[in-house]
Design goal:
Helix content: over 70%
Order of helices and strands: HHHHHHHH
Number of helices: 8
Number of strands: 0
Oligomer: single chain
Distance between the termini: 79 Å
Radius of gyration: 23 Å
Strand content: under 5%
């Protein structure tokens, strides 16, 4: 039997849920130190539901993300727990990994309403701030290059 932490198991389940079986096998293999065949067998068992129950809803991730977008992480965890039959800790880990994957990977776009609320409240995203900083740096560099070119050709 392969010894895999619950976090890695949840990560593998997340990949399986997205039909990314190779990524699930890779994460199990990398974190358990087992061979490729053993990792594939483990993932096959996960997929078959012998290790953990599979999610019942095809749109479970979207449902969880919709609940999260309302700012209610506890309800999202409870919804996932009820839908899958997993324990509380495993459900919490899955929801946190899902948040990390979707939000951290910039895969999910904020809704128009959320963007408007952020603009009104002054909470601009880091991407907008970093873009502004980059534009300012570029303008400063152009200004310096222009001044240097003027000084060089003037002499």
């Amino acid at each position: 039997m392969i010894n895999v932490s619950p976090e890695i198991q949840q990560q593998a389940l997340l990949f399986l849920y997205r039909n990314q079986k190779i990524a699930a096998v890779k994460v199990v293999k990398d974190h358990s130190g087992c061979g490729l065949k053993e990792a594939k067998d483990y993932v096959d068992a996960l997929e078959a539901g012998t290790q953990q129950p599979a999610p019942k809803s095809q749109n479970l991730d979207e449902e969880v993300l919709a609940i999260l977008s309302q700012g209610n992480k506890l309800n999202a965890i409870k919804h996932y727990k009820d839908a899958t039959g997993l324990g509380l800790a495993a459900s919490r880990d899955y929801v946190e990994k899902l948040m990390q994957y979707k939000v951290g990977g910039n895969i999910i776009q904020q809704s128009r309403d959320t963007d408007i609320k952020n603009i009104i409240s002054g909470n601009y995203s880091n991407n907008q701030n970093s873009l502004s900083k980059k534009l300012i740096k570029i303008l400063l560099i152009l200004l310096i290059v222009t001044v240097l070119a003027y000084l060089i050709f003037k002499i």
